[in-house]
Design brief:
The protein is 48% helix and 16% strand. By secondary structure, it is of the alpha/beta class. It has a single domain, classed as 3-Layer(aba) Sandwich (Rossmann fold). α1 (16-27) packs parallel to α2. The protein binds NADP nicotinamide-adenine-dinucleotide phosphate. The site of NADP nicotinamide-adenine-dinucleotide phosphate has 27 residues, from α1 and β7. NADP nicotinamide-adenine-dinucleotide phosphate is lined by residues 12, 14-18, 36-38, 62-65, 87-90, 110, 137, 139, 182, 184-185, 187-190.
Amino acid sequence: MNRTGKTLLLIGATSDIGRATGLVYAMAGWDLQLAGRNLEAVRREADDIGTRSGASVSVHHLDILDTSRFEDFCGALPTLPDTVVCVVGQLGEQQRAERELDHATQVLRTNFEGPALLLGLIAERFAKRGSGTIIGISSVAGDRGRGSNYVYGAAKAGLSAFLSGLRNRLASAGVRVLTVKPGFVRTRMTAAMKLPPLLTAEPGQVADAIFSASEMKKQREVIYVRGLWWPIMLAIRSIPEPIFKRLRL
Ligand SMILES: NC(=O)c1ccc[n+]([C@@H]2O[C@H](COP(=O)([O-])OP(=O)(O)OC[C@H]3O[C@@H](n4cnc5c(N)ncnc54)[C@H](OP(=O)(O)O)[C@@H]3O)[C@@H](O)[C@H]2O)c1
């Protein structure tokens, strides 16, 4: 297989969406830097993808809650990647987050603080070089706060706003910033949920959407993986607050 000489940094390499994404890039000839908190699991992933694709794959320890190590993490990468995808996330439990400050803090930090600070740090390096693509996985849950999952939703709203600002600031610096809102995806995160088939994607479909959006010349920067989500969220955002609060979504 032809290698492209390009490198992807995948943050959250053990996630179901992350594993599918790594494989799509590797099969397209990219080399990989895989990062995650469980180094053994990341190594297994690296071996599997390397064997199947012939890609050169390095592995890196990263806990997204340990922000004090982010500078060292970036400094230790073998090369500054061409593209970074951050798929780290935690759905958490809304009702537990309402009662337990520690749980709410972890959901907010895992979905917002950690990904935003790390992608921001990498963005500075990309801006200095004058090239790079940053891809953050946010969620339709961040498009409007709902009573049933607003702690996770608020964290994803924060991430979407951060990525939007980064995109706006770095537009003339040669750095592209993409926000991916996958909708429902059949992964271990949603294993306990009954998912509507029309609005649910497989991890491989999310991976294909990420890869084609990042490689496309057309400047699509906010991506709803299943197109149907776009009008649905437009409608949900437009519902006036007095009606919305009666819907108890
Ligand atoms: N599935 C969906 O329906 C859906 C919908 C919209 C958005 N998303 C988003 O898509 C992304 C991927 O989700 P997924 O469905 O593939 O879920 P997943 O398989 O549960 O993946 C979550 C990933 O986050 C990692 N992670 C959690 N806390 C971490 C920490 N402190 N440090 C480092 N890594 C940590 C996990 O690592 P371990 O393997 O070590 O636990 C895992 O790799 C998430 O951002 C999620 O919010 C998912």
